[in-house]
Structure formats: C-alpha cells, structure tokens
C-alpha cells in the first residue's frame, strides 16, 4: 500500500477548528523523555492528533500500525520518496527509512486539525521554514548532561551507541534557541503539566 495521498491519521470532524491547524513539533536529545511527555500530554488534551512517522523498520511486540509508527515496506517507502510524499526523510545506519508524511500534514493544516509529532532538530528547522505560521516548536532539554547519560545507560547497554548519541547532544542543544518553547524535563509531572499548558494555549478544548 503506497501512502502517497492516503492520510495516515483518522481525523474526526468534531475536532476541526475554525482556523488553520497548528503543527506542534517536539524535539530534544535521545533519552530526554520526549515520548513519555507526549504520552502524558495526549492523555490529558483532547483534539490534538499524534502524527506517526513512517518507517521501514520491523514492527516490535506491543506496537501497532500507526502507533508509534506507520510501517511500510522499503519498496513502498522508496516509491513515496519518488512521488514527493515526505516533508523530510532519512535513512539511518541500519538501512531503515524514517519519514514525515506530507499529505497528512497539508490536510490537517488546511482543514483546521491540530497535530503533534516528535522530530529531530534538523527536521524541525525544515518544518519551521516550510510552515512558519503553523508550527509550534517545543524543545525538551535534560536537567544536566549527567542525568541524560544515566538515562541513556538505563535503556541502552551498548557503550558505543551511548557514546554516539551523546556526541549528538551538543549539536542538538545548540538548536534550543530556535524553539518557541523550551521545557526542562527534570520531573515528569512538572514537565508534563508544562507541555499540557503550552498545547492548551494554542488549542483550547
């Protein structure tokens, strides 16, 4: 199934706003807790849709189509690249592709639906340039480097992988000033409430 024009989010008419949609983009270093905060906020804020990235990596136990990713074959992904179906995409060291689905974004913004996704800092810069009136960039920062190092060590046992991710942190942190909002994730409950407050500022229920 090639998703060049098909939407990957099931938008409900009741959530349509009488304005253009907002595109909330959450970024931050690996291990900072982006997905945990996103889950916290989306459980508490109605009417904002999570936009999954499209990937060619295999589905893992506990995952489903559309959460946390939309899974496709490499052949389909490459056909979608040729058809211009991605706002941005990348191929990582494993050979798997990841991309952000442009038709779903355009439909949401043009039809008054608010969407949210997590994206790396370079991808977010592209999005801000493409949709300057619609994008609300939110950066999640660690309280300090040692805390981030411990979080990464807790979820990844390969020291080489941890080292590579830490190498990226300085680059990623250098982009924080380009974001409209910065949340320091020193405490899940406090940082989660801050993210909920930001979302409700733009998308009141």
UniProtKB/TrEMBL annotation:
Record bears the keyword Kinase: yes
Keywords assigned: ATP-binding, Kinase, Nucleotide-binding, Transferase
GO (cellular component) term, any one: cytosol
Reaction equation(s) it catalyzes: GMP + ATP = GDP + ADP
Superkingdom of this protein's organism: Bacteria
Top-rank EC class of the record's enzyme: transferase
Domain Guanylate kinase-like: from-to ranges: 21-200
Enzyme Commission number(s): 2.7.4.8
InterPro entries assigned to the protein according to its UniProt record, in alphabetical order: GK/Ca_channel_bsu, Guanylate_kin-like_dom, Guanylate_kinase, Guanylate_kinase_CS, P-loop_NTPase
Family, as annotated: Belongs to the guanylate kinase family.
Function statement: Essential for recycling GMP and indirectly, cGMP.
Protein name, UniProt field: Guanylate kinase
The organism of origin for this protein: Neomoorella humiferrea
Lineage, opening ranks: Bacteria, Bacillati, Bacillota, Clostridia, Neomoorellales
Gene: gmk
């Amino acid at each position: 199934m090639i998703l060049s024009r098909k939407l990957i989010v099931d938008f409900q008419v009741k959530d349509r706003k009488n304005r253009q949609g907002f595109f909330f983009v959450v970024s931050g270093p690996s291990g900072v807790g982006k997905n945990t905060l996103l889950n916290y906020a989306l459980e508490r804020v109605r009417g904002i849709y999570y936009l999954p990235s499209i990937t060619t990596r295999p589905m893992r136990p506990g995952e489903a189509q559309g959460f946390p990713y939309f899974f496709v074959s490499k052949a389909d992904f490459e056909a979608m690249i040729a058809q211009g179906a991605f706002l941005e995409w990348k191929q990582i060291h494993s050979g798997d592709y990841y991309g952000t689905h442009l038709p779903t974004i355009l439909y949401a913004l043009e039809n008054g639906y608010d969407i949210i996704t997590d994206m790396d800092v370079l991808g977010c810069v592209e999005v801000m340039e493409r949709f300057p009136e619609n994008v609300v960039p939110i950066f999640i920062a660690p309280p300090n480097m040692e805390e981030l190092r411990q979080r990464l060590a807790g979820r990844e046992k390969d020291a080489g992988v941890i080292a590579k991710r830490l190498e990226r942190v300085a680059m990623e942190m250098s982009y924080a000033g380009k974001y409209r909002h910065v949340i320091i994730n020193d405490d899940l409950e406090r940082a989660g409430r801050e993210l909920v407050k930001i979302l409700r500022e733009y998308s009141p229920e």
